[in-house]
Amino acid sequence: MCTVGELSVWPGASNVIPGHVGLAVDVRARTDAVRDYTVTWITDAVADTCRRRGVGCEVAVRHTAGAVAADGRVMEGLRQAVAGAQVGEGGRGEGGGKGPAGGEGVGR
Predict the structure, then answer these.
(1) Cα 70 to Cα 73: distance, rounded to the nearest angstrom
(2) Residues 42 and 27: beta-carbon distance below 8 Å
(3) pLDDT tens readout for residues 49-92
(4) Residue 2: beta bridge partners?
(5) String of b and e for 29-63 (b: at least 16 CB within 10 Å)?
(6) Closest to 35 measured CA to CA, from 10, 4, 2
(7) Most CB atoms closer than 10 Å: which of 27, 68, 100, 103?
(8) What are phi and psi of 15, to 5 degrees?
(9) How far apart are CA 69 and CA 82, in angstroms?
(10) What is the pLDDT of residues 15-55, one digit of tens each?
(11) Which of helix, strand or coil describes residue 36?
(12) Cβ(100)–Cβ(37) under 8 Å?
């Protein structure tokens, strides 16, 4: 699971191409190996995109912590919420990007 922890854009004016953008992402997984693989996949993809577009970028891992299992009741609530959302291929919110999780999602 990845969540945006922080997004900063400079200058913060409308209708202006930013000179600097900062993005912090929180990556979590059931195991350290999956998390580490996902972090590598994301950082490589960002660096490759910047290189192809001729844009300078710096990618840094700022914090790492071991995987911890979530409370079973929380996970069940998430499973029910996902099932109730009726999301899938081609729909909004389906998370259909070509990420590395490969079934690591909720309820699997």
Answers:
(1) 8
(2) yes
(3) 999 999 999 988 888 999 988 899 998 998 999 888 866 665 55
(4) 27
(5) beeeebbebbbeebbeeeeeeeeeeeeeeeeeeee
(6) 2
(7) 27
(8) 60, 35
(9) 19
(10) 888 989 998 989 988 899 999 999 999 999 999 999 999 99
(11) helix
(12) yes
- At 69, list the tokens: 């299992």
| Number of Cα atoms under 13 Å in the Cβ half of residue 28 | 11
| Block residue for tokens 């997004």 | 7
Phi/psi at 78 (nearest 5 deg)? -65, -40
Residue at token pair 């004016």: 13
pLDDT at 92: 53
Which letter does DSSP use for residue 68 in this model?
A: -
**pTM of the full predicted structure?**
0.62
The residue type found at 20 is: H
Query: Are the CB atoms for 3 and 18 separated by under 8 Å?
Result: no
